[in-house]
Amino acid sequence: MPKMTFIKIDGTHVEVDAPNGLSVLEIAHENSDKIFLEGACEGSLACSTCHVIVESEWYEFLATATEDEEDMLDLAFGLTQTSRLGCQIIMRPELDGLVVRLPAATRNMTI
Questions:
Q1: Which H, E and C letters describe the chain, residue by residue?
Q2: What is the model's pTM?
């Protein structure tokens, strides 16, 4: 089973199973007892609450962000050069071992 690691705000590393075909957001929700990644729009690319920061050594392996994703990322708190939306990162074999950092906060524009 492929794995990925979430780095929580406090620096804790949480390694979880990461089945191919699932998004990082779906993987976080399957592990909600250990990881909190909101995803207010349920992965419909209508918010930025599933913003994650991809560790730089993994960023080049991701598919290029779409214009819609980049527009939503503009709303994200603490945007970095390697920021992506977790709903848009789909696990595949070459991402086995992926490491993402959870940002310090999110902006939920629907509240």
A1: CCEEEEECCCCCEEEEECCCCCEHHHHHHHCCCCCCCCCCCCCCCCCCCCEEEECHHHHCCCCCCCHHHHHHHCCCCCCCCCEEEHHHCECCHHHCCEEEECCCCCCCCCC
A2: 0.93
